[in-house]
Design brief:
Blueprint (H helix, E strand, L loop, with lengths): L1 H17 L4 H8 L3 H33 L13 H28 L2 H33 L7 H22 L3 H15 L2 H11 L19 H34 L1
């Protein structure tokens, strides 16, 4: 039996060699296995958690003590340092979750489905924070806690998509069927992300336009932008740390 596998192994090595894949890239490919990824996830979680604490401390200090008072909204605008980064992460995490779901659906890799399940609760958390802080901001600026605005409504749909993904994958006992069903929902639901982003341009909404754009100069003071970007980095590092912890739990559960 061993000798029968030699030609197949030699053929695989030849393909990898002729395609220019180096030993280092093959080593990274090994981390697609949950067993080999488990210790790496622990190291990533520790580094990301430390960076999250550092960036959060710096971002909160800049946002609440260094950034100037807004001329129109006064001190209430400082919700932006929590609200905007949380809204960014709510969309970004869903796109990443849909990406891992698509990889898992196409290649049938266990770790991809585990990563998607590990990201969903954090994405739901940031979506809830974005909606909650948006309501706190909307009351003094709009005079109401909630309006069925295009941006708010599509963000609420995003929260329901996160909840639906978690409920669907948890309700099916067969893990492979659950992963396939969740992957389909995540991939279909990703169409809501550009709707959230472009809603203020496509429809006449109460929600203000983007304060930060890749094509235009920022419409805020440099210290405000710095505080917001630091908080975005803090939320990003937190998401990585928590996702790595959760995926380790997923691996342990699968091993049991």
């Amino acid at each position: 039996m061993i000798w029968r596998n030699v030609p197949a192994a030699a053929g695989l090595f030849a393909v990898l060699y002729t395609s220019g894949m180096t030993a280092q890239s093959i080593r990274w490919f090994w981390f697609a296995s949950p067993h080999t990824f488990f210790p790496l996830a622990g190291r990533i979680a520790g580094v990301a958690a430390t960076l999250a604490a550092v960036f959060a401390a710096a971002g909160l200090y800049v946002g609440f003590f260094v950034a100037p008072t807004d001329a129109q909204q006064g001190e209430v605008y400082r919700i932006i340092f929590i609200h905007v980064p949380a809204a960014w992460m709510s969309m970004f995490i869903y796109v990443v979750m849909a990406f891992w779901s698509a990889i898992g659906l196409a290649l049938q890799t266990r770790l991809s489905a585990m990563m998607a399940r590990a990201l969903a609760p954090t994405g739901a958390l940031f979506t809830f924070i974005a909606l909650w802080t948006g309501s706190l901001w909307g009351k003094p600026t709009w005079g109401t806690w909630w309006v069925w605005d295009a941006r708010l409504t599509s963000e609420l749909i995003l929260l329901f998509l996160y909840f639906g993904f978690m409920a669907l994958t948890a309700s099916i006992d067969d893990r492979r069927r659950a992963d396939r069903a969740g992957a389909l929902l995540a991939i279909v639901g990703v169409v809501n992300v550009p709707i959230i982003y472009y809603s203020v341009k496509w429809w006449n909404t109460l929600h203000q336009g983007a304060s930060v754009s890749f094509t235009q100069a920022p419409s805020m003071a440099a210290t405000m932008l710095t505080g917001m970007l630091l908080m975005a980095l803090a939320f990003w590092m937190y998401s990585i740390a928590v996702a790595m912890v959760r995926v380790r739990c997923e691996i342990l559960e699968a091993e049991r």
